[in-house]
Amino acid sequence: MRTYILPTLLGLLLSASVAAAQTARTQRPPASAVVANETLLDVAVSDSSTTYLVFGGPVSLVDVGMAGNYLVKIEANAVFVRAKRRNAPPTPMLIRYGSKYWLGRLVFVNRPVLQLYDFQKDGALGMSANCTLAGSAPENELALDRELAKKNKVEGKLSQLRKAREEHQAVAVVENDLVLLLANVRNDKDFTYLRLKVINKTNIDYNVDFTDFQLVENAQKKFLAKKRNEARRPLAPSGGAANQIITGRTTGYLTYAIPLYAATERGYLEVTLRELNGARVLVLPVPSRVINRASTI
């Protein structure tokens, strides 16, 4: 009897194994649900300003691959990201908001072109209920490469500003034999145009890596060594060239266009010049009254 039962049992076991393998193949997710790395959105992050990501629901989880290189903060439906050091390596980032997921990649840049990523619309994210797809960055109204006419308009007004006579030499800062001062400022309905003067009294060229602008509000003097209660908001420049060089023992001018804003009496615009391959940083506070009373262009 055993000679007949054993082959039968082996046949049954073999049939069961084949059926299980076929079932496993049918339950495997299709290749279209797997997200390739090249589809991930690169989010530009720097160590001098904060990048903001806004989603269509409350954020409950942020997972950064190389967390030691980036600072991350969750606030309601927004995520704030800043690099801890220069030239931080790229790293993936997973965010869960509501019942959905977003997957992207953090990439360090010296001067972010876009600092606000708006993912509140599902259409922009391209997400479904069962899989995660990379989002797409929102249109930046102030990006110079978005509309040629706007770029030409901004650059045309900057050209006019370069020909103006210097008006605000009292707004200046001196550091390491370098002088940074505000030469001119103008406004229109969309932008504030700045012309900065740099006097290099050293024999070493000053290579401007990038210029950072921040709107500082509620600025008060220190009282009994307590920290000042300030609110800072980065302003991405929308005009002006990067990597400009002020050679030794010469004077140079830098022109920029930044988004128009309104500040209170205690607010000011903080302009920071950072040197490429150097530690000579120049920080110039421009009082709000100077910008608020500036002529139109």
Automatic annotation (TrEMBL):
<feature type="coiled-coil region">
    <location>
        <begin position="144"/>
        <end position="171"/>
    </location>
</feature>
<dbReference type="InterPro" id="IPR022298">
    <property type="entry name" value="Conjug_transposon_TraN"/>
</dbReference>
<dbReference type="Pfam" id="PF13595">
    <property type="entry name" value="DUF4138"/>
</dbReference>
<protein>
    <recommendedName>
        <fullName>DUF4138 domain-containing protein</fullName>
    </recommendedName>
</protein>
<keyword id="KW-0732">Signal</keyword>
<keyword id="KW-0175">Coiled coil</keyword>
<feature type="signal peptide">
    <location>
        <begin position="1"/>
        <end position="20"/>
    </location>
</feature>
